[in-house]
Design brief:
The chain is an alpha/beta fold. The protein has twelve helices and eleven strands. The chain folds into two domains: about 30 residues, no CATH class; about 260 residues, TIM Barrel, CATH 3.20.20.60.
């Protein structure tokens, strides 16, 4: 099969000459990742959505998880040692997996520089912890949007196919990146109605551990005070038509969270799942050994 090579110039300052390989008369262009707002649409449409939590900084974990049928992966960089390069490789593994699992990265803080660098990787969304006011929520939204709507720096990174789709990405990125704010402090709880009303906040996320600590009922998962706080967030989400989610580590909690009215859940965390499975296997071995010796 014959082919010929043609250099074409499209006026893109980031890619002076685009190499098109023509095979059998059809021009093809090798593309990297493409920006997608499919997850955002799912949540806006009211589709119950489920993800899983990635805290192990190895691409194999994300690749396997992405192939299992989850609607998205949450990559945690707040409470892990992951570097930006590690996050990029995890996202690349998820993109390559046999399945469609958009990636959302929880950044360590509401920092526009950290948010910008994560978005340049080409992720589908960001989650920001400890948001406590409408002003902080507006700062987050601004960090995800290009001028004049926001203050995200413009550059040709992986998100733009390394410049091959630079102008297209910049034109379409605003509003397509899922923007999730975490309600996990008493102050955030008091201001949740104003936070949810901020234009550009796509979803709320209850951080149960930090919220329980802030309410002085840490790890008291059956506490009425914690339950009331969660109900308040869910009710506010309903009033403002804002999707709301949370994390569940125990399978038995999943029906409870659905009944509470959560629109999306993150079910399971890689480290917790691994520990539970290994603990169960070890216990089974010891049980079988005792029976054998009796």
């Amino acid at each position: 099969m014959g082919s010929n090579v043609d250099y074409q110039h499209d006026g893109n300052p980031w890619v002076p000459d685009i190499l098109c390989v023509q095979t059998a008369g059809v021009a093809t262009l090798t593309r990297g990742p493409t920006m997608s707002d499919s997850l955002n649409r799912q949540l806006r449409d009211g589709t119950h959505t489920v993800g899983t939590w990635i805290s192990i900084g190895h691409p194999s974990v994300a690749e396997m998880s992405a192939s299992l049928g989850f609607d998205f992966l949450l990559i945690d960089t707040e409470h892990t040692t992951m570097s930006l390069e590690t996050v990029e490789n995890i996202v690349r593994a998820a993109d390559a997996a046999d399945g469609e699992a958009p990636t959302v990265v929880r950044v360590p803080w509401n920092d526009p520089v950290r948010i910008k660098r994560v978005l340049d990787i080409g992720v589908d969304g960001v989650m920001v912890p400890m948001v406590e006011s409408a002003d902080e929520a507006r700062e987050l939204v601004s960090a995800t949007r290009y001028p004049p709507e926001g203050k995200r720096g413009i550059a040709a990174g992986r998100a733009t196919d390394y410049g091959l789709h630079f102008e297209e990405y910049v034109r379409n990125a605003d509003g397509s990146i899922l923007t999730v704010v975490q309600i996990e402090t008493e102050t955030g709880l008091a201001n949740v109605d104003e936070i949810a009303a901020v234009d550009g906040v796509d979803a709320l996320f209850v951080g149960p551990a930090d919220l329980s600590g802030s309410l002085d009922v840490f790890a008291q998962w059956e506490s009425d005070r914690l339950a009331d706080a969660i109900d308040d967030v869910v009710a506010t989400a309903r009033e403002t038509d804002t999707p709301v989610g949370t994390l569940t580590l125990k399978r038995g909690d999943i029906p409870v969270r659905i009944e509470q009215g959560f629109d999306f859940l993150i079910v399971g965390k890689d480290t917790a799942t691994l520990a539970a499975a290994n603990k169960e296997a070890l216990a089974e071995y010891k049980r079988a050994l005792r029976e054998h010796e009796e």
